[in-house]
Specification:
Layout: H1 11-39, H2 44-70
């Protein structure tokens, strides 16, 4: 991990990043569903898609927590989810 820095994203940057993350996450879920439907859950590619989708969930949670830390007192609950 990198050492912590004092730089923080602005409100606008969190909003923009949140839109991008939500869009990417939605597309990833669509692709995951497609691969699972075509190949089934026991396929390696399908398994990897599921794991990547879970990791994207975790990334969204982490970014949501970071937004709350970067913007104390501001309602940030919908930025990344």
């Amino acid at each position: 991990m990198r050492p912590q820095t004092s730089s923080r994203l602005t409100l606008e940057e969190h909003q923009d990043l949140g839109r991008e993350i939500r869009s990417a996450h939605a597309r990833l879920r669509e692709l995951c569903h497609l691969v699972l439907t075509v190949y089934g859950p026991n396929n390696q590619a399908a398994f990897t898609f599921v794991k990547v989708t879970e990791d994207m969930d975790r990334l969204s949670q982490d970014l949501q927590s970071q937004a709350a830390e970067d913007l104390p007192g501001f309602p940030t609950s919908g930025f990344y989810r």
